[in-house]
Each structure stands twice: as structure tokens, then as C-alpha cells.
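Why does residue order matter? Because the sequence determines the fold. Keep that principle in mind as you read this record.
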Amino acid sequence: MTFSLRLTLSSALISIAALSATAGATPARAQSVAAMVNGEPITNFDIDQRMRLMALSNQKGSRKQVLEDLIDEKVKIKEAKKYGVNPTAADIDSSYASMSQRMRLSPEQLTKTLAGRGIRPETLRERIRADMVWSSLVRGRFKDSLMVTDKAVRTASGDLSDGKSDSNNFEYQMRPIVLVVPRGSSAATIEMRRKEAETLRSRVQSCDDANTLFRSMRNATIRDTVVKTSADLPQALRELLDKTPVGHLTAPEVTRQGIEMVALCERKPTSGDTPEQRKIREKLYTQKYEARSKSYLQDIRKAAMIEYR
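Structure:
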């Protein structure tokens, strides 16, 4: 059963009504042990907590399935420790903070929100720990077998070529440029700054020109060189860069930062993945990872000491 820890949880945290205590649950039942895994208990309270957390992401599952998930996590964490994969409290805190940031909350606000729904933050932290250690363990132990070859990608895409070159795949060397426009500026001010950018754009014939020009300007900045391939860039930006002569600037674009342009310093063919090949490679990798993860988990569960109560 997939357990999402991403943006679905964020939206649910905002919209869901406060959860009531589990119907019919008593303190004695809540603390009673549902299973022992390698000498570690899983209580009915643990199951209740996980079910509440699942409800926040609009997921459903029977108590039996939730218990099996918790058993899997105990087994995964024990196996990971055997290979030295054991994230520190700081690692968990960092992931917890990143999650709260994606929800536009502080870690303290996330903790308070969970508590308001009767969920201990440790319930979420333990889920995070299990995901972290298992992903790291599987990717580390089976790195070679999880690799997706270029031939496999070409076969999946129906490409019968030798894969040595692709005229539609490039490596771009770029330098982003920003003409700063203070927030709250009028439309007239923004338009004036945009016209200034158009004028400056016509003066640039190389990245050296761009560097000299914009480094000497007030309220303007030129950033360090960025190297990306076609597969790394959104389609709209790829098309824009392919239409821009090397050494010139892309058309000015109004953004939150101000007026932005990109100096295209170099564009050269590369043998790396095209955007479509990148998608295929990621899909094939995911399929391999999921299959290996499933078989590995089955193996270590067989060796685990699991006692149902």
C-alpha cells in the first residue's frame, strides 16, 4: 500500500475536520500489543495513530493492512541498521522541516496541526525514517542491478539507432541576467525597465559582452554559468534557447525578481538523454526499483521473528 507524504497531506491538513478518538477504543486496548517484530512491540495505539495520519492524506486502509505496513517498517529499519544505514535525529528533523516547508508551515506549526488532530509528531517521523532508510538501502545495495542501460532506453522508445548522437539533444551553457525592479513598482516603471532590457540586449554579441555590460550596471546582476542538457529544461525554455543565437540574449521576461534574460554562451550536441529518453529511463528505473524492493522485503520478512497477538 502506497503511503503518500507529499502535497496531498498538505491540502488535507487544511481541509479536514478534527478527528475524533477512535470509536470504542479504551486506554487498555490502545496500549495492548498487536504484534511483536524481532522483539519490538507494535501496539494498537500505533495502529490508531497511523490510521489517523493516513486519513489526513485521504487514504484508507484496514487495521490489518496498517499493522502489516508497520511490521514492514520495523523489518526495514532493522535490516538497514545491519548495513549501517541509520539516519540521525538531525536527518529526520531536516526531512520533517522540508515537508513542513512544502506545506508552507514551520515545523512547529506542522507539529501543532498534527497534535490538533490527535496525532503525535513521532508517528510522522517514524514514517519518514522508514522511507529514508529503505530507499537508501535498496539503492545502495542494488545499485548496479538497478542501472538502466542506454540500449534498454532506446528499445523502450522504439529507437533502432546506435544512440551515438542525437541532433535534437544539446548541452547549453547559460548565464542568467536580472534587471532588478523593486516590488510594488508601477506598470509604467516595469515597462520602462523592459524597454531598457531590449536596448541592452541588442548591444550583446557574446557572453563576454554580457559579463562586461551587466557587471558594471547598478540594479543588475549576471550570474555564474549554468550548464544544462535538453533533458534538464522545460520544453518552453528549450525552444527559446534553440531559437537564440549563441552569444546573444533571450527576450526579456517579467518575473518576480524583475526583468530576466539568459545569455546563451554555448550550445553543442550531446549524447545524453533527450527529454523523452529521460522520462523513459526514470520509468524503467522505477519499475526495477519497485520490483527489487518488493522481493527484498519478502526475503527479510521471512527471516524476521513476527508474532501476532
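Residues 1-26 have pLDDT under 50 and may be disordered.
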